[in-house]
Write a structure and sequence with these properties.
heterodimer; A: mainly alpha; two-stranded antiparallel ribbon; 5% strand; elongated; B: 73% helix
């Protein structure tokens, strides 16, 4: 049966999602560049270890002819990438959603400004919106989210 | 449970099921995290974001995993899954997808809360220092 090898099949599936997340929320992802990537790496390492145990235990196996070759112990490189990429999809998705929500008044103003410019309505409307909406008001944050963790 | 412990089975290299794997590597850490986060898990924003991400993950993963299973890029050993197949994929795989997304979302949430807590503590310390 002719089919794609695992690696391109994985990349074609995962990379567009990560790209869209960066297009939508680059400012939030860049701002958190010293924090969330560690979480992705940690999850990747954790699931690689779990995968090694599952493979050794014989729960699942791979078609060797569809693999690129490099492996870390019993874990094919494609699997390590799979766990890194899927963790990145969820973590980035959460970070972007959180960032957009925290700054929703600014985000709304930014898009109103863009829309106004797109309509050819330059100047006052656009800038006015941006200045009034540039700082999220304290009242916008729900009380729940302001609670400090006790851990 | 009618079988020996997960750890014993891992050591012997057989009889470990996909469900054992889910229990050990996903359900247990999730339960531990839930104990740490407790009330904060009830935050509406957290629940909405996490629920949406889990749903998207499931819908996005299913056709991809199904295709890989039809191509036999990966296969599950007989007797290690419950036996059911939804499309060509065992239900455990869908659970894995949901639980992995949940674990990643929970950890991200904990990270964001911790960062904000640290930021808040720093701002408070600055205020005290300026006094």
């Amino acid at each position: 049966m002719t089919h794609w090898p695992y690696l391109p099949f994985l990349l074609v599936w995962a990379l567009p999602v990560l790209l869209v997340q960066w297009l939508v929320g680059a400012r939030y992802l860049w701002r958190g560049r010293r924090s969330w990537p560690w979480l992705v790496l940690g999850l990747g390492a954790y699931f690689t270890l779990a995968d090694a145990i599952a493979i050794i235990a014989g729960i699942w196996r791979f078609d060797r002819t569809a693999l690129a070759g490099p492996a870390l112990g019993p874990v094919p490189i494609e699997e390590i990438l799979f766990y890194l990429l899927t963790a990145a999809m969820v973590v980035q998705g959460f970070v972007v959603a959180w960032g957009v929500w925290e700054e929703r008044t600014t985000v709304a103003a930014r898009w109103r400004g863009r829309l106004a410019r797109w309509r050819g309505n330059h100047g006052a409307v656009d800038r006015g919106d941006l200045t009034t909406g540039s700082r999220p008001r304290a009242a916008d944050a729900p009380p729940q989210s302001r609670r400090a963790p006790d851990a | 449970m009618g079988h020996t412990s997960v750890f014993e089975n891992v050591g012997k290299g057989h009889h470990v099921t996909y469900a054992d794997f889910l229990l050990l590597f996903l359900v247990l850490p999730l339960a531990a995290l839930a104990l740490v986060l407790r009330r904060r898990l009830l935050g509406k924003r957290f629940l909405a974001f996490t629920g949406t991400l889990m749903l998207i993950a499931l819908v996005y993963m299913a056709p991809w995993d199904h295709t890989a299973a039809v191509w036999r890029l990966w296969t599950w050993a007989p007797g290690r899954t419950w036996g059911a197949r939804w499309w060509a994929v065992p239900p455990e795989e869908y659970l894995f997808c949901l639980l992995e997304a949940l674990l990643a979302a929970l950890l991200t949430y904990a990270l964001l809360l911790w960062l904000r807590h640290r930021e808040g503590a720093r701002t408070a310390a600055d205020k005290v220092a300026r006094r």
